[in-house]
Each structure stands twice: as structure tokens, then as C-alpha cells.
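Troubleshooting log. The previous structure file for this entry was overwritten by mistake, so regenerating from the original sequence record. Sequence copied from the archived sheet and checked twice against the printout by T.R.
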Amino acid sequence: MGVAVASGVPAELGLVTGIVGGIVTGLMRGSSLQVSGPAAGLTVLVFEAVKEFGLPSLGVIVLSCGLLQILMGALRLGRYFRAISVSVVEGMLAGIGLVLIAGQLYPALAAKAPDSGLGKLAGLPGALLDALGDGAALASLALCAGTVAVLLLWRLAPARVRTVPGPLAAVGLATAAVAGLGLPVATVEVRGLLDSVQPPPLSAFGGLAGAGLLGTIVAFTLIASAESLFSAAAVDRLHDGPRTRYDQELVAQGAGNTLCGLLGALPMTAVIVRSAANVQAGARTKASRVLHGVWLLLFAALLPDVLALIPVPALAGILIHSGAKLVPARALAALWREQRGEAVVLTVTALSIVAVSMFEGVLIGLALAVVKTAWEASHLRLEVVDKGAGPIEARLSGNATFLRLPRILDSLESLPQDRPVRLDLSGLHHLDHACRTALENWAARHSTPGTVPVQVTAPAPRAAPAGTPAA
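Regenerated output below.
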């Protein structure tokens, strides 16, 4: 419900997605213990999509996302999501966490949040100053702070008390405080599950002709699939049971999202927090994740009036706590000491999501990760041997790509033109077309009339594969 409210859609749609994620996705093959449902990681993207295209188009987006996931699973592409840079994924989650924290501070202050990520951050000081003179806003902020405090301190409670999950205890205490003290705070508006289900109208499918909606669908598909499969890999490390079958899990996620799209609900992913709680509670079979959806269905069907008592600031506190856990502050410090390039990719991805949007931020992070990998793969060593007399020896070894051209040409062009030069390329493992052409042009320019032409030793030929007939 908190994810739904933060996404700008009716709270019941979060319950619908949780029910489908448990009962439908939970029954299918793939992962045995991870729990699926609405994810905080997609909150920002859903909010932006609803704002730009409208709530009816959300069903079209989620339905298309589900069909694409089923197709990718059928084509056995699930395993390839493990090749996505971990730094990009962590940066994506960190950016989501920052936007989530900034966005949820506004309902905690009983204020309306700006639309953009930078606007949310810039508007916080003013919203806080306005709240200082408003009793209702201060009560809302105190309830949110109390919820976060319960979540942080719950791990210190006796083991018998901790059998109740921290978020459930925090929401329960906040609800009791509002009822007992009569605090003037907003509560969740509940209409009932059946009333909230709104299948997308046929007119909403016309947006598929636009590049904006298609780009959003691709972003939903990639992020939801990556988050689900990364979650599966993490959950597999928490237990000794059956391992996740990635392609089948992708099909299961697609089936769930297809049904969620037909119902007009939120997109689903596997969620590492719920999945880890499931394993830590002693889960052994997929019945645990199916029952997750069953309990949601029974609670929403039998006790809908209880849901309307939940205060919005309490849900904001839970999401602020969840957003803070998405920001890997300690891991980033360790990464900066060990692999600064990866730390830069993580940071740039997160800040791009805050400054621009989810889709563009992830694309920027992926592009930076590719450039970083290409740069690191272009290890090149240039050794110049000048004995003072005779030809100058210039030896290149490693991988010569266009990324290293400035360094190569600066060094070669600094060689004296009145001396013969021998350019030895036999130590190169790879020489791309750009470098080959640039070296040939340099050799032609350096071999001016009256000087000995540059002697070039070609790269060593690659060994032929075993069984290949000789030419």
C-alpha cells in the first residue's frame, strides 16, 4: 500500500499486485523462496509514467512489460541479465532510494511533493520551515519519525517480540497512536479491491505508437527483470534449497505482470527484502510465497475497514527506511578504496536518476560502464629504446584501440624525424582499424624524403583453431 501511495495510484492496486505476485507467480516454476509484489525500486518510474501518460496507460505498460518478459524467458535470455554491471544496478537502487526518501518526506510533512527529483530536494528546506508553524504537519512528522525509530530499534527487541515483523509493528503502533491520541493526520483511502481494478481501455493502447510510451515499456521491462533476477541470485545465497532457474523465473514474472496489466495494477518484481524475510522466517518450499498472496487476499477481503485506519505518515516512514537501505553508503566507501572506476559508475548513475529520470539515468550508467570496461580492456604499453645512435626502437604491446590513439600518436610524433625508426607491433594482441590507419599515416608522414622509411613489424598472426587446415 505504501508503494502504491508513493507511486501516485490507489492504495488497493499495491495489494492487487501483491496478491498476483504471491498466488500466480508463486505457483510457477523458477525460484522457490523469493516473494514477488510491488517494489519500491519502481516507485519513481511508475509515478513518472502515470504523470505523463495517465493511469489507464499504466495497465498497457505493465501488460506489455509482462509479455516481453515471457518472450525473453522463452528465448532463454534470463541468464544474460546477470551480465549487467553490478555498479549500475546498485547505482540505480541508490538513485531510487534518494528520490524515494526526498519524495516521502513531503507526505511526512503533510505537504505536496514537487514532480522532479531535483525539485523534491530543493523544496525540502521550504517545506520544513512551513511545517514548523503547522500543528498538523508537526504531528505528521512526529508520527513518521516514530515509525522510522521503531524500525531501527526493533532489532534490539527480545527474540519473542521480534517474531512480529518490524514494519507490521511500526504501522500497528502508529495506527494505535493516531486512534488513541486523536492526531490530525491523513489516513489511507480504501475503496475495496474490486472497485480499484480498472482494466486498461482499448483507447489506451493507441499510445503504443509513440516513442515515449515504448521507451517507458523498455525501461520497465529491463529494470523489473534485472531487479527480479538479481534478487533471485541474492536469495539463492541465503538458503541451501533448489537453485533459481532464471529463464523460468523470468517467464513467471512475465505472467504475473501480464495479469497485473490486465487488472490495471502496479508492476511487480521479486523483492529482496520480503524474500530475505521469508527465508529467515524458516521458509522451505514455494508454499511460503504462495501464502504471502493468500494472506493479502484474505486480509483485504475480510478486513478492508482496518486498512483505512493506517496513517499515511507511517507508510512514508516505512518507505523512507526502505529508501535508506537502497543507498549503499558503506559499500560505496569500500568500493572507492578498491575500484574507483566502479564507484564512479555507481555515483553517476544514482545522481543521474535524481537529476533527470529513471530511464535516462540507467542509460547513462550503462553507457559509462561500457566506456569504462572498454578503456580498461585497452591496456597498451609503448616502449621507446634510443641508444643514441642507429635506429630508434618503438615497441607496442597489449591492445591498441581508438581509445588509446591520443597517447600513441603523442609519443610517436615526439620522435626525431632525422633518425630512422623501427615500429614493432608484434607484441599487440589486438589492433583495431582506427589504430592501424593512424599508424600507417604517421609512418608515411614520418618517412620524409632524405630519411630512412619507418620499418614496421606487423602484429603476430593469431594461432589457428585446432583442426583448421593449413593454407
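The mean pLDDT is 83. Archived copy saved in two places this time.
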